[in-house]
Specification:
Chains A, B: InterPro entries: Glycosyl_Trfase_fam3, Glycosyl_Trfase_fam3_N_dom, Glycosyl_Trfase_fam3_N_dom_sf, Nuc_phospho_transferase, PYNP-like_C_sf, PYNP_C, Pyrmidine_PPase_CS, Thym_Pase_Put. The structure is a homodimer. By secondary structure, chain A is of the alpha/beta class. The first copy, chain A, folds into 4 domains: 85 residues, Barwin-like endoglucanases, CATH 2.40.40.20; 63 residues, Transferase, Pyrimidine Nucleoside Phosphorylase, Chain A, domain 3 (Up-down Bundle), CATH 1.20.970.10; 201 residues, Nucleoside phosphorylase/phosphoribosyltransferase catalytic domain (Pyrimidine Nucleoside Phosphorylase, Chain A, domain 2, 3-Layer(aba) Sandwich); 82 residues, Alpha-Beta Complex (Aldehyde Oxidoreductase, domain 3), CATH 3.90.1170. In chain A, 41% of the residues lie in helices and 20% in strands. Chain A contains 18 helices and 19 strands. In chain A, helix 3 crosses helix 4, helix 5 packs across helix 10 and helix 7 packs across helix 16. Chain A starts with 5 loop residues before the first strand and ends with a strand. The interface between A and B is large, with 61 and 61 residues. Strand 5 of chain A pairs antiparallel with strand 2 of chain B.
Chain lengths: 501, 501
């Protein structure tokens, strides 16, 4: 294909998520000369950069025959503007494609091969179809320890990596799926109050009603650049910021986006995902919280134990000390589900208020205690006591205020203008709570985009209830969202199952 | 999600190939209320039909906040027009998704499970990511015989099925990859001249410079409806028509579209692909031609033999008699590569012209002979002689004219206005011919869209050549296409490798 043949970029603003798509009029000379049809892969050159994109042909006046457009991610990657020239060439043969095929056919991949696949994942040279094939070929336990180590290292190598001038740098991570489980800001406050360093980079919600970054943003700015983060950590020993802009293991974000719709679990990829983020963030000692429950991400202790062992083993090979803790994941932690409601809960715990959710406080103390022990801030077995002392004395709250101030100032927690109470249909006791449906209801109510929206839970497992007693309250900022959430809640009455005693 | 919330359909005409995509303004009330982002899967309702589509959000004035659009395939499936109301709902839980996951994790699937996956493939409920995961999970030899039988049966069941009032109905199929190998019309002419029934439904080119339907269309109309096909077969005993509009094993077309970019081979899926098309077309006895060569689709005799055995075994279980023949796939057959050039070659063979390509004639006689034997038109071992008699006597040519007349009239073969000769750079002998690069050159010259375009090959393997002796001629209808093809040819001088003797 001739490099001389060019088309002018026209902006259409179509967001396809990560996948690079190029749009051309089906009648343009390039499509006609090459016989290109939808789904052909092309190399696109513009602004002295290039990328590989999938062709969508346009059969309307949307694009002239001398024009081409790009999906938002592709346009941003090239940095082209309206009117810029785009040139096209055939896709070169990719080594990563044949390595991927080898993996599909059951061969083990070495470090170089995995690094090539990860690099081509990050630079968009592999299509979503290739990535789906890759995660499928790695599903279950089809990555052995050596491959998992190599994949983790490759994922770290394909992104930015932070380093800190302090030791030890501790961290904690929760293997998701439990609404309201917002222990991280409390843990950061406690362990940094004890003098440890915990620069926490966290994520926004992907499929949940709130990520730690969403909840923290209710209380303080979280979108800080690296210089600002360094200043905060220098001043306070810790931070709770959004890590999404720092290109820490970007391959992880891309693979998660493919695994999620396929609903695939891969031990190896989960381990590589968690550990690559932690190593990239400069952590040295990490505690992994593995909540187990029928509607949590990890559904059995056996799976959790296998995962814990794998995390420890791969971490050790890569110089990262990993400890895991298997916790109760049968019901939400705390009362609030949604950014502001969760922020309210964690403030109550930090401020030692009488109405602080006991389970959130206990979970945070358990995790903070283990992190204190891992970080050498106390003797083994004394972590929980030490954590409790730091919390009860108000030192943790003082420390949290200092962190928020350093990040840009502590904010007031907003309240949703609209609420609706859901009550028990009959007397009995709470037999089961479906974490997934509850999370869905909170999202329909507007979380996390509407920070004050979500669900406020009033009961716990095993608790006796009367007919008409409040089970939970919907919080919303817009009537439409309240209505959606209420309708979905009424269609899923069993989200909180009341057993007739 | 509320069914009351609707958007108006606006036509954008974006062709994404088979995948259903829905476009919405990122600021529309549905995206905002649901927190939908690019790549969410949605059920789309309109015109009293529904389908599942992947969301692309639009961040421009391309769509108003009360509008939505669909990819061409999705718009056609729903049959909606500009201004029609589209409603949206959450994607229901699909049984086929969890069965797919089971296969990914290494479980065997039963007939019901495979039928569900195939049905959801055809009706577009599984995304391209799911299909990529499916073909990956079946790659290599990960489908056993029982699964291959069940997959084949499911693919037949998910489409239309023809039946004929005559017996036996014979067919042949070539496992592709060999340019110019256009034996089918000759075989049809010979075996129907012997009184057998061979209603041949063939395909257009997908990645090659010409499919059998493209070549046959140079000589007669091939886009006939079922009633017309029945009339042709009733009159002549055979036909060579395009099968693409008849919905014979539509799942096959979809899976091929996914496998091709991944370049995956799966014994089970290849067998299911071939046999489902044949069974759907009403064939009873089928000969499979397996050309073996380093640049053909099948690269070793071992692979070909394993495939032949699998085809026979699965066919037998499904009531289809399958015989296979392993042939030489080291170089193109005949001289022409491209619809009109191949049509010219096959006419020369049928008309017993002195300049008829000997290899094409021999290959056609070999295959026709085997089909005659399979169909009981002659004693075993006498097929080739019988085929030769039918060809040499002019009966096959008479029969071919009758078929063309019945299909709508024999046409003159067009000639390309532009040609360019490629000559040997030095003396020697032809050591190797790269089928794939030669096919690519023919496509760049305009084949198959420009019927007269392509490559006319003047040498065969082992042939001695002088410096400057013609190797092949490029044929094109447009100067730009001739230029592209010539440039690519000059960059790939080794497509025909001349050994210094």
């Amino acid at each position: 294909m001739s490099h001389e043949a060019s088309l002018r970029y026209r902006h259409l603003g179509i967001d396809t998520a990560h996948e690079y798509v190029v749009y051309m009029n089906a009648g343009c000379h390039i499509c006609r000369a090459e016989g290109f049809a939808a789904q052909t892969r092309l190399e696109v050159h513009g602004n002295e950069r290039s990328l590989i994109a999938t062709l969508n042909t346009v059969h309307s006046s949307l694009l002239g025959i001398d024009e081409a457009s790009l999906s938002v991610s592709a346009q941003q990657a090239l940095g082209v503007q309206a009117g810029d020239a785009l040139r096209f060439s055939h896709v070169p043969v990719l080594v990563s494609e044949s390595d991927l095929r080898a993996k599909i056919y059951g061969q083990r991949l070495d470090a170089t091969q995995l690094a090539g696949i990860v690099a081509d994942t990050v630079n968009g040279r592999l299509s979503d179809l290739h990535l789906a094939a890759f995660v499928t070929a790695c599903a279950g336990d089809r990555l052995d320890i050596a491959e998992t180590v190599a994949l983790t290292r490759a994922m770290v190598g394909a992104g930015a990596r932070l380093s800190w001038q302090r030791e030890p740098v501790v961290d904690k991570h929760c293997v998701g799926g439990l609404p309201g489980n917002r222990t991280t800001p409390i843990v950061v406050a406690i362990v940094t109050a004890a003098g440890l360093t915990m620069p926490k980079t966290s994520s926004r919600a992907i499929t949940s009603p709130a990520g730690t970054a969403d909840t923290m943003e209710v209380l303080a700015p979280v979108d800080l650049d690296l210089a600002a983060i360094r200043r905060v950590v220098e001043q306070t020993g810790g931070c709770v910021v959004w890590g999404g802009g720092m290109q820490l293991s970007p391959a992880d974000d891309i693979l998660i986006r493919i695994e999620r719709p396929l609903n695939l679990d891969s031990d190896g990829q989960l381990v590589a995902s968690i550990l690559s983020k932690k190593i990239s963030a400069g952590s040295q000692r990490v505690l992994i919280d593995l909540p187990v429950g029928p509607t949590a991400k990890v559904r059995s202790s056996e799976v959790a134990e296998r995962l814990a062992q794998r995390l420890q083993q791969v971490g050790a090979t890569l110089g990262l000390a990993v400890d895991s803790i298997i916790t109760d994941g049968t019901q939400p932690i705390g009362c609030g589900i949604g950014p502001a409601l969760e922020a309210r809960d964690l403030l109550r715990v930090l401020q030692n208020q009488a109405d602080a959710p006991a389970d959130l406080r206990e979970r945070a103390l358990l995790l903070a205690g283990r992190v204190l022990e891992m970080g050498g801030a106390c003797a083994p077995g004394e972590g929980r006591l030490r954590a409790r002392a730091l919390l009860d004395s108000g030192l943790a709250w003082q420390q949290f205020q200092a962190i928020c101030a350093a990040q840009g100032g502590l904010r007031d927690v907003p309240h949703a203008p609209l609420t609706e109470l859901i009550v028990a249909p009959h007397a009995g006791s709470v037999r089961q709570i479906d974490n997934r449906v509850l999370a869905r209801i909170a999202k329909l109510a507007g979380a996390p985009a509407s920070a004050a929206a979500g669900v406020d839970l009033h009961v716990k497992l095993g608790q006796p209830v009367e007919a008409g007693q409040p089970l939970y309250t919907l919080h919303a900022e817009a009537p439409g969202e309240l209505r959606y959430a209420a309708r979905y809640a009424s269609e899923h009455g069993g989200v909180i199952e009341i057993a007739h005693d």
